[in-house]
TrEMBL record:
InterPro entries: Diverse_Substr_Oxidored (IPR051312), FAD-bd_PCMH (IPR016166), FAD-bd_PCMH-like_sf (IPR036318), FAD-bd_PCMH_sub2 (IPR016169), Mopterin_DH_FAD-bd (IPR002346). It holds the Pfam family FAD_binding_5. Gene3D superfamilies: 3.30.465.10. It comes from Rhodococcus wratislaviensis NBRC 100605. This is Putative oxidoreductase. The lineage of its organism: Bacteria, Bacillati, Actinomycetota, Actinomycetes, Mycobacteriales. GO terms for molecular function: FAD binding; oxidoreductase activity. Residues 1-174 form the FAD-binding PCMH-type domain. Transmembrane segments: none annotated.
């Protein structure tokens, strides 16, 4: 879609582009959402792809993902053999309701910053205990837990001019065992519910992440795997307004799915201990 309110596109911003931020600006990376709808409040686009940020940097500490990394690049990553949870990269990329053309343009950071309930890059990074590095307009930076970034449907903690610079996934999370469940109304539809559970290779812990059915990511951390009743009670204790309501599912339907999938995930990961 043509954006007829845009009067300027900054093709070569400075390395720290926030200092030039002004009202009516938008950061441009893949642009798959920006150009999909009218943007009447925007006057200028600042192109982040010209900054040449590293896209994927594996190391002994884990994986650094540049915010402008495309979905296609993440999908094509060949991780180290001991990163058992890295298969969630492909799983999450395939959760997009998008064509290959969108994969080639859409970015990991863009999907996170859109902060929609069904954003699969949000699911993946929250489940893998990632942190986000944010650059503020005044030149400072801060680090936030992925689980704390999205605060509601299309809402997050970014302040005006602040930018998501990179995502860091720790190696301990990448080495965890995992199980996931995803529900859609149609085979290639938007996620109604997307849940991931992880466990340390030699531990008794359980980390359960619930997204798509909730307005913000929910992550439960257990030092020891709870029994079925305790897990159901934790889900039932969530506030009513956390459940998302749209044509893909009612809050009651999504709560039911969360409890059903949570038990399946719990059972699958516990069964893995006996193999």
């Amino acid at each position: 879609m043509d954006l007829n309110t845009i009067t300027d596109v900054v093709r070569r911003p400075p390395d720290r582009p926030g200092a030039q931020w002004r009202e009516g600006d938008a950061w441009l990376a893949g642009g798959t959402w920006l150009f999909s709808d009218q943007q009447p409040d925007l006057r200028r686009l600042v192109d982040l792809t010209a900054l040449g940020w590293d896209t994927l940097v594996p190391s002994d500490a884990g994986l650094e993902i540049g915010a402008t990394c495309t979905i296609r690049e993440l999908y094509a990553l060949a991780p180290p053999d001991d990163w058992s949870a890295a298969s969630l990269f492909a799983t999450s990329c395939e959760a997009f309701l998008a064509s290959f053309k969108v994969w080639n343009s859409a970015t990991v950071g863009g999907n996170i910053c859109m902060s929609l309930p069904a954003g699969p890059m949000i699911t993946m990074t929250v489940a893998l205990e990632a942190t986000y590095t944010l650059w503020a307009a005044d030149g400072s930076e801060r680090t936030v837990d992925a689980a704390d970034f999205v605060t509601g449907d299309h809402e997050n903690v970014l302040t005006p001019g602040e930018i998501l610079r990179r995502i860091d996934i720790p190696v301990r999370a990448l080495r965890k065992r995992h199980a996931h469940r995803r529900f859609t109304l149609t085979h290639l539809g938007r996620s109604t519910q997307f849940m991931i559970g992880t466990r340390s290779p030699d531990g008794d812990d359980l980390l359960l992440t619930i997204t798509a059915g909730t307005t913000r990511p929910i992550r439960f951390a257990f030092d020891a795997v709870p029994d079925a009743e305790a897990l159901q009670q934790r889900i039932d204790a969530l506030p009513e307004d956390v459940w998302f309501d749209d044509p893909n599912g009612s809050p009651d339907h999504r709560r039911h799915l969360a409890k059903h999938f949570a038990e399946e995930i719990r059972t699958e990961l516990v069964a893995g201990d006996r193999r």
